[in-house]
Every structure is written in structure tokens, then in C-alpha cells.
Amino acid sequence: LETSIQIAGSSSIGHGQSFDVDVVIGAEGHRISGGEIVLSYDPRDLEIGDVLAGSVLERSFYNHSVGVAQVTIVIGKIGRVDAVFGEGSLVVVTFNVRNDSASATTEVNLISHSILDHADEPFVLETAADAVTVSIQGIVGDLNDDGWVNIVDLAILGASHGTSVGSDGYNPEA
Fold first, then answer.
1. Is pLDDT above 90 for 149?
2. 160: which of 42, 66, 104, 118 is 20 to 30 A away, CA to CA?
3. Comparing C-alpha atoms, which of 107, 73, 65 is closest to residue 89?
4. Three-state secondary structure call for residue 54
5. Span 81-129, pLDDT tens digits
6. DSSP assignment of the chain
């Protein structure tokens, strides 16, 4: 049984945008009844948007709690526990990039996980990937990197108007 985390879609995200992190499990005939997943993240860069059950445990219940810099997800199967074959998503967490994030990159880490079999005994797990890195792109027109395009940015642009490379007041960002 192998777990990993991966970004659904592009790993280059802009301020104010969101992205999904899938906790993926690969099983070959294992009967999975549930588990607990803990992800860590930098709250200066990211906020939790949503947490949803993935495709592996159809008809499941789940709950999550958000702490400082981490989210804990508990998931369990409702009803009969059938064997799982292949790879699928156990849980999907949507992260929002904060507008005021000053970082160029940030990470989401799988810091702990426990997956239970049909008898509620823990599986021995291998982890293929325990972190994903997201590149945070700046906002076009945000010349002072405060996360907003406003009159301050227009003033910076105006101060640079008419200048050229090497001259006083030249701003390569403007």
C-alpha cells in the first residue's frame, strides 16, 4: 500500500487563486475502511478552502479540523468495505493562495497518515511523495508587491514614466 500527495493541475499559482492537493493511495486488493491524514502548510501563504472525500472510499463520512499550520482529516467508509484496486484519491484539499503572501514558493507536506483495513487495523504504508511545492506568481501590475493593484502602483508607474535603462528613477518592473 503506497500513499503520496500531488497537485491536481498546475503547480504555478497566482495570488488569490486556489489549487487542489490530492492524497493518493495505491492499493491492489486491499480493503480500506478509513484513516487519518495530516497535512502541514505555511499559513502566511495558504488558507484552507475546502476538504472533500476522494474517489477511493465511495459512500464515506469525513471530518476535518484546521489548526495552526496544519489540517487533520479523518475519513471512514459507510457500509460494506470492498477491495480497492489501482490508484485513487483518498481526500482532496483545496488551498487558497493568500493575496498578501510574500513567498515565491510554498510547500504542502504529508506529515502523518494512518490507513485502516476492514478490521480497523493499520496498514504498513510506503510514502512515494510526502511534499508538493507550489510556485506563487505575482499579480500583474502589482509594482510594490503588496498583493493589490491600486493607486500606489499607478504612482510608481508614473514616477518611472519617460525613464530608460540606466537613468535616475528607472524601474524595470514598471
1. no
2. 104
3. 73
4. coil
5. 888 888 889 999 999 999 888 788 999 999 999 999 888 888 888 888 8
6. -EEEEEEES-SEEETT-EEEEEEEEEEEEEEEEEEEEEEEE-TTTEEEEEEEE-SSSSSEEEEEEEETTEEEEEEEE-S---EEEEEEEEEEEEEEE-TT---SEEEEEEEEEEEEETTSPBPP-EEEE-EEEEEEEPPTT-TT-SS--SHHHHHHHHHHTT--TTSTT--TT-
